[in-house]
Specification:
This protein is mainly alpha-helical. It contains 14 helices and two strands.
Length: 348
């Protein structure tokens, strides 16, 4: 978890930028980039406060730490993507929402797992983790098929129902194997410690408020930057916004492997990818249904499927004890950087 003390200077910058974002929209690029950076910083802190508060409230009501880790913490770490995509869709920028969901997943597998494996090679020990990998592959293919003819409200409802089914399966599997599966034990151990109920509610409310305001500032800034640079909001979502909202997962994964929790590092990425597809990608379908950009169908979603397929092969396909060594981690990172360079070339 990130340190919960937020510097006073960050609060001042946050409120200064929020005033511009809400009341005085401007095309000034300096303000736009400042809003983007401050929005991302506050988004990370707010998500952490929100998760800590919600987790403590649940623990105070006697909810199992494992159940909290699999649901509240898992969904809470995707709260930045969920809020950003919701606001973008409501404001008529579904491209930003779609780009955020797909770009975050690509960043999770290429950047986060690539960098993490370069630092410490990853080994998959958990049987639960290896069962999650083919499920992620099926979900990725299913979402791609749904996107081929555009996103409808029915598609969004189907994705949300699939999320409920996935969470039910995951919780049931983890509960039945909690004493034997290393991933279940690591998830349970990582749940934030409990705090007094009054303090927990303050964390929860302040975190939620921070998520809402910083998401507003971030979406506003991202759309302004896209318009000023003459690129689509999809491109900004695939690059800057996706990278920024994925940074907490990068820090969490590096922290996990340094503590010897390889399965938790990979499990965080897989869980985040599932939530991004079924919770985040469903939002433009529910709020602003319509056709999906042709570039997403021909370039970005296929890249996502290739990364997911490679992760599946590394995890369960080629060896009984799945692993990602430094060479393979370097390959994932190089592929991610090449993908970003391809996007850059397409807009210059």
């Amino acid at each position: 978890m990130i340190n919960s003390s937020l510097p006073l200077i960050c609060f001042r910058l946050w409120f200064f930028v929020a005033q511009y974002a809400i009341f005085e929209p401007t095309k000034n690029m300096l303000i736009d980039f400042l809003a983007l950076v401050v929005g991302l910083v506050v988004l990370v802190y707010a998500a952490d406060w929100f998760v800590e508060g919600a987790s403590s409230i649940a623990r105070n009501f006697g909810v199992s730490p494992l159940l909290i880790g699999l649901t509240i913490v898992g969904l809470g770490t995707s709260a930045p993507e969920i809020l950003v995509s919701s606001l973008a869709s409501f404001q008529g920028n579904p491209g930003l929402a779609v780009g955020n969901a797909i770009g975050s997943n690509i960043a999770n597998m290429g950047l986060i797992l690539g960098v993490t494996a370069l630092i410490v090679p990853l080994a998959f020990h958990s049987g639960l983790l290896k069962r999650e990998l083919p499920v992620l592959m099926l979900i990725s293919i299913g979402c791609y098929v749904l996107a081929l003819d555009g996103l409808s409200v029915f598609d969004g409802v189907l994705m949300l129902l699939s999320l409920v089914v996935f969470l039910f399966w995951l919780v049931r599997s983890a509960m039945s194997e909690r004493k034997n599966d290393i991933l279940a034990q690591e998830v349970e151990a990582e749940v934030p410690e409990t705090m007094p109920n009054n303090k927990a509610w303050i964390f929860f409310v302040v975190g939620l408020f921070g998520l809402l305001i910083s998401s507003k500032a971030l979406v506003w800034a991202a759309v302004n930057i896209a318009h000023t640079m003459g690129v689509s909001d999809l491109v900004i979502g695939l690059t800057i916004v996706a990278l920024g909202t994925s940074l907490p997962e990068l820090a969490a994964s590096i922290g996990s492997v340094l503590k010897g929790e390889d399965d938790l590092a990979v499990g965080n990425v897989i869980g985040s990818n599932v939530y991004n597809l079924l919770a985040v990608f469903s939002l433009p379908a529910l709020i602003a249904p319509g056709p999906v950009d042709a570039t997403v169908i021909s370039r970005d979603f296929p890249v996502l499927l290739v990364f997911t397929g490679v992760l599946f092969i590394l995890g369960v396909g080629l060896s009984k004890a799945g692993k990602i060594n430094r060479l393979e981690g370097g390959g994932l990172l190089a592929a991610y950087l090449f993908y970003q360079w391809t996007i850059y070339q397409s807009v210059i």
